[in-house]
# Entry
Amino acid sequence: PAFDYAHNFTGAVARVQSNKRFSLIDNSGKTITAKSFDFISQYNDGFAIIETDNKKGLINGQGKVIMEPTYTFIGPFKEGFASVQSNGKWGFISMQGTLDIPMLYDAVKDFSEGFAAVQQKSSWGFIGTDGTVRIPLQFADVQAFYRGKTTVTTAIKNSTALTKNIDRLGRFTR
# Structure
């Protein structure tokens, strides 16, 4: 088959373009995707993001669609989860392509040390990998956990953020 453009191989597959459409080929040059897409991203953690009609889904390294294009955004996988957005709400999918944490949030940040920062109505807090709230949504802003602690913004006064550190139980620390 002739391609307009062939990208470098990632493992045993390469992205190719024909007539402004993307598909995947194996080492022998055989097309391994059942259909073509508007776009296929580079592979990351064994998955690539596929896009059709401005909706995104996932495809694995064997060219199998794991999740049909349904989301407006899919983030990178961190600790087994990727953030997804649809209709202005955010949730998280697992590496199996299932929506494991429902689309309940106005904004999210990636998982770090088993916690993801989530926002509802301008208040931030943290959920665990099971989707339950671990630290209540009560902060103006939060950072990712690092070595069991994180910095949270408790308030903003006169354009200045008032920050404190908390541990994994939500207790203020030094």
